[in-house]
Amino acid sequence: AIPQVVTESKASGAQIIDGSLKFDFHNQQHLERTFGSTGNRRTFTYSFWIKRGAAGFGAFPGLIFSGANNVTPNMLHMYFGGSNSEGLVLYSLKDNSNVRKYATIRQFRDPNSWYHIVVAVDSTIPAPALDRMKIYVNGERITSFASSDYNAIDLNTEFTVSNSGQKQLIGLMLNSSGAKSTWYDGMMSQYYFIDGLALGPGYFGFTDPLTNTWRPGKFRAEGTTVNDGTQWSTYLSNSTGAANLFDGN
User: Fold this and answer.
1) For residue 27, with 0-12 CB atoms within 10 Å meaning exposed, 13-18 middle and 19 or more buried, which class applies?
2) Tens of pLDDT along 142-192?
3) Where are the alpha helices (DSSP H) in the chain?
């Protein structure tokens, strides 16, 4: 028999997410960074793993925030809703009028579970409009929303200003006065912010064939062939019809 080495990625035990950072709601712990330059505000990706703590339920805990306050003309915040009607909420405001809000029906209230969240934004996609912002949880795309607001494509209107030289907060949300308001409670790991690319979950994780569970994988910026489920024929525009473009000739 050929001996086999059972690595952590192949083990069938409990889910383990390495390198996690614990955020304490009571001690108001958070991270912040100011980007030195403006990146691509139309196309970007967030990816991170979280395990919520009990202290953060019902308090609108902030996951990601960018802007001077939550009513500033340009801002973005991602948080968990404090009611049973909204789960993960993404809200952005551009030029004080262009509002976009996505709120999942799924609640994410199991304090014993790790959740891998990927938010892929590409506001340049012609259609369908819902594809301009995709949310994946543990490798599966979320398609049921309590609310989902999106505007017609507008190349001069960015989806958010999340990397426009402003301070970005992780684990905290500011109130309307710009004061620190609500903090995230729990663990967070494998945090990525990818500027200029809208990536699917396969760039960050994989399904364990032994346990059929979603696990973190080493991120590779290039060389992967993982498809995020996009059907490119959706975007074809040809007077002869899509069927004639794939007739084998």
Assistant:
1) exposed
2) 988 887 766 545 433 444 455 556 778 999 988 888 898 889 999 999 999
3) 242-245
Strands 62-66 and 43-52: unpaired
Q: How far is CA 10 from CA 7, 28, 157, in A?
A: 5, 37, 45
Of the candidates 236, 221, 196, 215, the residue with the CA atom closest to the CA atom of residue 38 = 196
Q: How many CB atoms lie within 10 A of CB 168?
A: 19
SS3 4: coil
What value does the mean pLDDT of the chain take?
Answer: 78
216 neighbors 205 (Cβ within 8 angstroms): yes
Three-class SS of residue 148? strand
Helices (H) and strands (E) in the chain, counts: 1, 17
pTM higher than 0.85: no
- SS3 at position 46: strand
